[in-house]
């Protein structure tokens, strides 16, 4: 990166620099009309900018003239072949900021080094979570695939390659843009101090503070960077052994996920539900629609254990109940992994269960579809139309078969409903204790809270984020 401070005008300076070409970061004077010339660059007028909470905003644009061998435009696209390292005018990079070990103070402190250190640390965390080096290698491989002349002979494969390339490119550009924005603010802050411009210094400090807040959101987004994390999903709950007590616990778990999904503004649809004889449910499936629904919900896969005084025991004894949870991604159109042949299906129709009376279903509208080669079944009785129930059941079956194929390919069979571990002692991922004390503890991460009521009312984000973070950290340690 080369830096040019050209022609002071009134009380401020003109700052130009070249980042993959020329990037005019600030020409502060509103009526600056002096001629600027450097390395073949000339202009009859200028472009002025001001800082905002999200970066720089253009105030006025006029003509620029470039001579041969001048700076190249900044709009040159980023690529995976050569990812340049951004730096400030004096060579400060994100890596050097981290190496300097500047103390990180409270967000409200007006210390630019503290804010820069916190943001740089977040960028480092984001890159680690995105597996930055692997991402760049994969991007190079996809670029080679996209340049093959016969790629679109297979539209399905080509579409998959194109979507993945676009997704990874977007992630790479997002991180690099955020990194450059930090360094630009640092340059601008140094310029403001040099020129004793308190207004510009205050604006830039505010922009850094806003970046620090945004960086935490970006850290969270980086947790959800796996292939299917953006998908909607099905959540399935199945009661363990224990009769009515376990059925009631399964219903509590399902209600917990419904509330959690609604809190996150996801839409929830009941696909299938088999009620227990006296209370609760034997099993149930809901469809959760929303961006990153699967990315969050996958943290809940496993066996959930409840310890409480049973409301169904006249002796008021303490009982332990279990419920198993499975989460299945709903892949987008054209992304299905398994082709289902009609000859491989057995479709059964039966009368839906219900509350009785006027709500009783008087026709055989419920549908159960069995995939004969795998034995996997999908049932839907929520809709009154047999046609709609069949369509919903087919969608569930497709997702289950896709999940099974993914599990086979990645040796992660435990994530599929048919491959759940035994619903009993020693296999639980989380314990909910309502008696003799009150606590919910995740046995995978040791994250715990002392208010089980809030958890059962859908406050699951702490457990989910703790698990996602620890999974990435564990993966890094193993690597």
3D structure, described in words:
The protein is α+β, with helices and mostly antiparallel strands and about 475 residues long. About 35% of the residues lie in helices and about 25% in strands. It contains 10 helices and 19 strands. The chain has helices at about 95-100, 110-130, 130-145, 155-195, 200-225, 245-265, 295, 385-410, 450-455, 460-479, and strands spanning about 1-10, 10-20, 20-25, 35-40, 40-45, 50, 55-60, 65, 230-240, 265-275, 280-290, 300-310, 320-330, 345-350, 365-370, 375-380, 430-435, 440, 450. It has an 8-stranded mixed β-sheet with strand order 10-11-9-13-12-17-18-19, with helices on both faces. It has a 3-stranded antiparallel β-sheet with strand order 1-2-3, with helices on one face. A hairpin with a 5-residue loop joins β17 and β18. α2 (about 110-130) runs parallel beside α5 (about 200-225). The longest helix is centred in the middle third of the chain and has 40 residues, at about 155-195. The chain is flat, with a radius of gyration of 29 Å. The protein starts with a strand and ends with a helix.
């Amino acid at each position: 990166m080369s830096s040019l401070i050209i022609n002071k005008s009134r009380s401020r300076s003109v700052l130009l620099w070249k980042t993959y070409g020329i990037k005019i970061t600030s020409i502060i004077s509103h009526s600056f009309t002096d001629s600027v010339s450097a390395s073949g660059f000339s202009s009859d007028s200028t472009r002025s900018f001001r800082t905002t909470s999200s970066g720089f905003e253009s105030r006025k644009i006029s003509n620029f003239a470039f001579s041969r061998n001048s700076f190249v435009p900044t709009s040159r696209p980023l690529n995976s072949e050569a990812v340049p390292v951004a730096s400030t005018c004096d060579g400060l990079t994100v890596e050097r900021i981290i190496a300097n070990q500047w103390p990180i103070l409270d967000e409200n402190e007006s210390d630019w080094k503290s804010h820069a250190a916190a943001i740089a640390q977040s960028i480092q965390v984001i890159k680690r979570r995105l597996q930055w080096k692997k991402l760049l290698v994969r991007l190079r491989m996809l670029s080679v695939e996209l340049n093959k002349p016969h790629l679109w002979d297979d539209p399905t494969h080509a579409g998959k390659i194109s979507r993945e390339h676009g997704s990874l490119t977007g992630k790479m550009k997002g991180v690099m843009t955020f990194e450059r924005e930090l360094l630009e603010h640092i340059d601008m802050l140094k310029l403001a101090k040099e020129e004793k411009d308190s207004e510009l210094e205050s604006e830039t400090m505010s922009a850094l503070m806003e970046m620090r807040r945004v960086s935490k959101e970006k850290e969270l987004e980086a947790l959800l960077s796996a292939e299917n994390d953006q998908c909607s999903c099905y959540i399935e709950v199945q009661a363990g052994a224990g009769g009515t007590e376990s059925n009631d616990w399964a219903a509590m778990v399902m209600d917990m996920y419904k509330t959690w999904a609604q809190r996150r503004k996801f839409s929830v649809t009941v696909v299938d539900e088999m009620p227990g004889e006296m209370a609760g449910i034997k099993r149930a499936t809901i469809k959760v629609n929303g961006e990153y629904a699967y990315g969050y919900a996958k943290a809940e896969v496993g066996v959930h254990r409840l310890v409480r005084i049973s409301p169904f025991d006249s002796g008021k004894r303490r009982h332990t109940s279990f419920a198993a949870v499975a989460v299945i991604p709903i892949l987008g159109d054209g992304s299905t992994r398994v082709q289902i042949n009609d000859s491989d299906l057995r479709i059964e129709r039966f009368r839906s269960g219900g509350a009785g009376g006027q709500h009783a279903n008087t026709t055989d509208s419920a549908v159960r579809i069995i995939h004969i080669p795998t034995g996997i079944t999908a049932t839907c009785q929520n809709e009154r139309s047999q046609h709609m129930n069949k369509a919903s059941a087919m969608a569930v079956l497709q997702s289950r078969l896709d999940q099974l194929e993914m599990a086979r390919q990645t040796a992660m069979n435990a994530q599929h409903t048919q491959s759940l571990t035994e619903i009993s002692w020693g296999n639980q991922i989380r314990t909910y204790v309502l008696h003799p004390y009150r606590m919910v503890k995740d046995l995978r991460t040791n994250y715990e809270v002392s208010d089980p009521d809030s958890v059962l009312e859908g406050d699951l984000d702490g457990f989910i984020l703790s698990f996602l973070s620890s999974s990435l950290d564990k993966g890094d340690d193993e690597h």
